[in-house]
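Reopening this one. Same input as before:
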Amino acid sequence: MLYRCIGRYAEAPYMINELSVRIHSFEELCYVLYENLYSLGDYIVDDDLIRYIERELGLPDLSESLIRKKRQPVEFIAGILSYRHFYSEDRVEKAREVLSSLEDIREYVRLISRADFLSENRRYKSAILMYEHARELMDEEKEKDEEMYRQLAGKLGRLYALFYIFDKAAVCFREAGDVRKSTFCRRLSMSRVEYADSLLHDRPDGEIYEEMERLTAKPEEIVKLEEVIAGGDRNAARKETDRLASGLKSGYRGIS
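Same output, byte for byte:
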């Protein structure tokens, strides 16, 4: 089945930053809107989009009708989807129902939904910004949903860890109630000296000394190499050094 294109194919794309997508045609715009109904918000009602539809896509009659619907986000989106019957009446009505049901949902819930979408599509940096915005809004609530907040913190922790931002990951995992991951990320964010110093505040005396001994102890292979070097046998020292280097190279290649 062949479909006749509606309007022009624009050389310069329109960017929907909240979804991290570029639009070049009316068909793409409709597809993106319909497939992301649960992630849409008032940001779609935008003067730049209206001008883009008129000037770049060559659809002045559509842009004119959208101007009259700027105060009604649901009808604004429905007006695009129903233009020239691109989507059937049933689908447009379904879109209206979904969008209307979202109007009473708190903004941070929408943000989390959008961030989930971005994260699933590997747009991690944009997802982090949106999760952080949602967390800020939740922090302003007098009575926030604690379980949702913990889940949000856990999602942020995983993304920060993905980018090796272990100090922030540790804080997020702690807020999520995941002590093991928080401790692990906290350790990765510190030098040995910093970590040993932090133990003074977190561990009983016996555990502190055991952990500090472990942190400051030299690996057995290094101790053996130092003994060989101290013995003055250069050939033996060279062989031992080559053996250690070979082991390190093999270990590095095995990292996946």
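So the earlier flakiness isn't reproducible anymore. For the record, The first strand starts at residue 14 and ends at 16.
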